[in-house]
Every structure is written in C-alpha cells, then in structure tokens.
Amino acid sequence: MTFHPRERGGRRPDLARLGLGRPGSGRPGLDRPGPARRDVLRAGAFGALGAVAAGPLLAACGSRDRPSSTPTGLDLSRPDHPVRLPLHDDIPMIADGLEPESGTLRILNYSEYNAPDVLKAFEKEYGVKVEVTTFVSIDEGVQKLNTPGAKFDVFYPTSDRIGTIAVGKLLQPLNKTYIPNLRNVWDQLQDPFYDQGSQYTVPHTLYTTGVLYRADRVDTVPANGYDLLWDVAHKGRIYLLDDDRETLGMAMLRKGITDVNTEDPAVIDAARADLEQLIDLVNIKIGATQYSTVPEGTATIHQAWAGDAVNAQYYLPEGVGPEVLGWWYPQDRRGAVGNDAFAVPTSADHPVLAHHFINYMLDNDNSIADFGYTGYQTPINALNPELMVTDEYVTENLVGAVIRPEDFDLGVQLLQLSPNGERLWDAAWAKFRAGA
Question: Would you state the pLDDT for residue 70?
C-alpha cells in the first residue's frame, strides 16, 4: 500500500515496470511521490468573463431544448456536435523554430496542481524561474486571466470554459510543432470535440465524479450509489461538493437523466427539489476538502472526484489502512467524467517557453510524476490502468477511481451552457444553498 512519504516514509511505486525510468534515476518526482489536495470548485460557464467577452455572450437567448449555439457565434460543443473554435486575425500563432524566452514563466493554476519537483526540474533544464498564481474556482481563474494588465504564460481551463475564453480572445492558438509529446495522449483527447484540432488547448488531467465513503462505517452500498447521499443512517456526516453543476447533475443522474447539460427549467427545478430533500433528511453539508474529511472521519459519505479517492489514503490517521475507504462510481461507467487542459493566454510574455512547458508536462515520466503528486490521473497511454493498481498508485478497493479512455465514450460531461441556461442552473443552486 502507498502511504504519504512525509507521514509514513512511503513506498515508491515501481516506475521501472511502467517503462518510465528506473528506481533512483533522479527523474523529477519519481522517488517520493506524494499527492496534495486540490480545492476545486468548478463553477458556471459565463460568469467571470468581463468586458472582453461577456457583453456579447450575455445577449444570447435560451431554449428549453439544448441550444446549438449562441447568437454571437459561440457554438456549444457536445460529443455529437464537435466544434472547431474560431481563430482571430489579430491573435496569430507563434512562428516555428523560435528559441524559448528567458526569465520567469508565469502559471495561473489551481492550488498545488503540479508537482513541485517537476516544476523545479523544468526550471533547471531551461534556466528559468516558474511563478505560480493560484485560484480556487474556474470563475476566479478567468477573472484573474481577464484582469487588465495581467500577464500569464500558461492557464489551466476546464473544457466547459474553453469556448468562451477562446471566442473572448483570452487564448492564443497553439503551434503544435513545439508540442510533439501530444502524441503520448489518448487518441480522442488529441482531437477533442470541444476544441477540434486542439487549436487552443491540450489535455492536462482527468476526473470522474462519484461518492467517497468510509467503508468501515457503511454497511451496504446500494446499486444506485448516489442513494448513499440520502442515507439517514449517516445524518450529519454526509456532504455534497460545493459546485452547482456537479450536484444538480448528480441529482439528475440519480433519476436516470443523462442530459446533464439540459436547459429545461422543469428538469433543473426537479433536481433542485431532490437536493432540498437532503436538508432535513440528512442535515446535508457542503464541502470542498473531501480528500481529507472522509479519511479523517469528519465525513462518512462525500460526493467527490476520483482524484480525491486516490488522495484520501494519504490523509488517514496513523495506523489506519486504506481498506477503510470506499469509492462508488456507476458500474456501467455512465457517470460524470471530464478533463482539464493546458492553454497559452493571449497576454503571455513567454509564449515559446509556455509551449515548451506544455510539452515538458506531456513527457511520459513528467506526466506520471505529476499524477503521483496530485492524485489526478493524466490521459497518457503510458499510464497503464492495470499497473496503476499493481504498482500501488491506487489500492484494490479504489480501483473504480481509475479512468480509462472508454469512460469518455460511456460517461457524460458537464459542458458549456447558454447564458440563459447558466442563469437557470445558478438560480436553482442559490435557492438550494439558501436552505442548506
């Protein structure tokens, strides 16, 4: 079993078996991987864009059916409706064959979302400094990106925001001649439906959304594991994610509704009503530290992301093994799934260096070292799902947290909404939160 090295002198997974270096090879982050928490609150799609893009986008009208686009020309991407995002004449792609700039690479990212050893190794290899500015929610990240005078070289958007910020001219197109390691990525994410041709982004990490629980306290897991969140036996120790799309989407999935991007007010209102049952039924709580509250015992059941399940083993009390943890995700794999991405902002002072950084992070060894720190899986072919368990990145009881390429074919993704749809979801969440 893998323990956090700072707490228990943890065992290093056998990366040699993955073909990604040998023990003691000195590759960044390989000798003592240790995941850290990720406080991620994925918020709505349009809320933070400000004057650059929000004005025209907010003029869009809504529909009870899924809209195919907004009047501004922002096509709402879906798996059955792939979108090639527009390019802008005044934001050209960087030229081929340029040398990376010197100085400081400025990254705008979630807190503790890259392995420090990997960042230090990049600094050493390129003779530069890396400066990380953090955000808690994607709304906050877009606000910081759009702040007048802000200069960032690398940004980490979620797939539901890429269209908006690209149309809003906050991103520059990628020159993939600098990113040959994109070939290491799963095929379907080399040409994703939300950014056909990977014109503005390449993938960073993956997540599914399920239920993390203390298996030593929960006697029975129902076939529909979402029902764990309605289990009165654990009243006062059940938590939802602090995220409108994830929670309302979960309530829809629980009832067999797979269109988690619906803009039908009746469906959204019914999901809100189901969540409101939890207020009196189980004294529901809202949280964002599920990776620690479940293993430490404050929470017994918590809606969570797969990376939180991987991380949770490192927050267990001394002497408590990972077998006390449980993870539920639909057996048919038709639950929520998604990914984050790398992008280069228009404001970048070091765009060539930024491309080299993205390529560096998609190197097999560096990508796996990053996963070993964050707990959030990277979509590279070399990270063999079976060996992730064999080599103890993931314990047997949490194997359901491992994400495979076919999960993106079977699962459902929380994607961009029209402005009217966003307002409907926000209003439902606000009404629920007011009671909770």
Answer: 45
In a shared domain, residues 301 and 417? yes
Q: How far apart, in whole angstroms, are the C-alpha atoms of residue 210 and residue 203?
A: 21
- Is residue 293 classed as helix, strand or coil in its secondary structure? helix
Radius of gyration of the chain (CA): 21
pLDDT of residue 384: 84
The structural domain count of the chain equals 2
Q: State the residue range of the domain holding 179.
A: 50-59+71-206+337-398
- Same-domain check for residues 129 and 178: yes
- Report the distance separating Cα 67 and Cα 210, nearest Å: 28
Residue 293 in domain: yes
Q: How confident is the model at residue 72, as a pLDDT?
A: 54
Tokens 């994830």 locate to 246
| 26 in any annotated domain | no
377 shares a domain with 419: no
pLDDT in tens, 103-131: 999 999 988 889 999 999 999 999 999 99
- Distance CA(139)–CA(435), nearest Å, equals 24
Which residues in the chain come in under a pLDDT of 50? 1-71
Taking the CA atoms of 132, 136, 138 and 141 in sequence, report the sign of the dihedral they define.
negative
- The helix-helix angle for 244-254 and 419-435 (nearest 10°) equals 90
* Number of neighbouring beta carbons within 10 Å of residue 277: 12
Q: Are residues 420 and 382 in the same domain?
A: no
The confidence score (pLDDT) of residue 90 equals: 97
Rounded alpha-carbon distances, angstroms, from residue 260 to 70, 81, 225, 335, 411: 19, 15, 18, 10, 11
Given a contact cutoff of 8 angstroms between Cβ atoms, the answer to whether 9 and 319 are in contact is no
Q: Is residue 45 part of a domain?
A: no
Do β-strands 129-135 and 301-305 pair in parallel, antiparallel, or remain unpaired?
unpaired
Contact criterion met (CB below 8 Å) for 12 and 33: yes
